[in-house]
Amino acid sequence: xxxxxxxxxxxxxxxxxxxxxxxxxxxxxxxxxxxxxxxxxxxxxxxxxxxxxxxxxxxxxxxxxxxxxxxxxxxxxxxxxxxxxxxxxxxxxxxxxxxxxxxxxxxxxxxxxxxxxxxxxxxxxxxxxxxxxxxxxxxxxxxxxxxxxxxxxxxxxxxxxxxxxxxxxxxxxxxxxxxxxxxxxxxxxxxxxxxxxxxxxxxxxxxxxxxxxxxxxxxxxxxxxxxxxxxxxxxxxxxxxxxxxxxxxxxxxxxxxxxxxxxxxxxxxxxxxxxxxxxxxxxxxxxxxxxxxxxxxxxxxxxxxxxxxxxxxxxxxxxxxxxxxxxxxxxxxxxxxxxxxxxxxxxxxxxxxxxxxxxxxxxxxxxxxxxxxxxxxxxxxxxxxxxxxxxxxxxxxxxxxxxxxxxxxxxxxxxxxxxxxxxxxxxxxxxxxxxxxxxxxxxxxxxxxxxxxxxxxxxxxxxxxxxxxxxxxxxxxxxxxxxxxxxxxxxxxxxxxxxxxxxxxxxxxxxxxxxxxxxxxxxxxxxxxxxxxxxx
Length: 536
Ligand SMILES: [Zn+2]
Ligand SMILES: [Zn+2]
What we know:
By secondary structure, the protein is an alpha+beta fold. Among the domains are: 229-297, no CATH class; 311-483, Aminopeptidase, CATH 3.40.630. Helix content is 37%, strand content 15%. The protein has 19 helices and 17 strands. Strands 10-11-12-13-14-15-17-16 form an 8-stranded mixed β-sheet, with helices on both faces. Strand 8 and strand 9 (351-352) form a beta hairpin. Residues 27, 29-30, 32, 58, 60-61 line the site of one zinc ion. It holds the Pfam family Acetyltransf_1.
């Protein structure tokens, strides 16, 4: 047990490493330790919080002046502990009352980060998600904790000891086999695995503060005060207290208010005081938007002060369209490249893969037309073959895409849209390219309320439509939005409404004059909008 109790110091900053909570990495050559945050590259590959499961060689010991990391082969238990630990630190907003859904959160996360978690030669078995469910229930009540008492269903899980690092959990677990042998040899009374694990953990962890187990009740209270009334779980609880009709009424009221406040905000963005308003739209600023203020005056449960994003942050009309378009070359207006390396998301701290999907099958109408022209032009040449078609690349938004996307928005939606803000949460974007040409994009604004993301823009170029591009983008955005409702506005006569409906979006309300300020008079599209919601 020495490994748990000996003081270690970071070779970079000299500070003590926090035992059982932030042990840092040990260089396999010089045996020195270093904080993850003190690494030259700033984080471990993949960026998972608490991920010390690497064979590491420090900068000084390496032959080529780069820190080297090799993923240690992890058991499913280690992976699930690591993923829950990461989610709880980096995406607490996903959780429901501190618990994560084993499939929507844990399995989805593992699937998305497969290359980060497993060595390259590790084969994905068909029923790997079943292994996750099995592992969680096997270690229930000593490594994991099921949310069954809170949710009445076993799908939600959290860590029993949320403050203890995955490394310590897995080291203590591996000590269990030795300890069991000892018990047998000494002919002591055998104890349950859960009991043994807890005993070992308590003897290994010096800082008793870290041993605090997950407290279901305290989380519940916290979550209830945080609630804005849209969560179905909260309705059940509220209805117990106040009677069903009242809570339902409350919910309706809250939704209704949401709409009017948004409308007000939209008007506010077009007024002269715009620059002041825009400062409030930055990610880091506290939630001072009108919606929360209005909610308070209307005697609806006040929202807490955590950061909620405003879906109308993009409607930045402060810059003149002409000055914006000046200085952007035609090529910039049309194209954006794809970076081949992982993109670090400022929102989730995750490294996003360069491609969401590469689709070589789909043959969009525009490319069909081009192919026909090429064939016609070469009809006299019997040896002529069409050159191979490039795939449609689905990627997360990158800075290179922004000028072209803004330009398309100005052309097809209305002037003044600036989607630079989406770079703050690339996880919730989808940009489709054919070679370097941007053919479509879709964006969600995350966290417009605690239970809701907002679909702000969806676009496919004419002649690239009706071949499944928008469908896949919507599908992808729904995938990224686990456990949260998605809302959107759509013009009343826009046929895309049918596509949304196929995904389960339901019309919740009509907003008269929603597009008044934006859509030109000569456009046939209705200025009235449907507010649609996908209930999760
Ligand atoms: Zn350090
Ligand atoms: Zn070293």
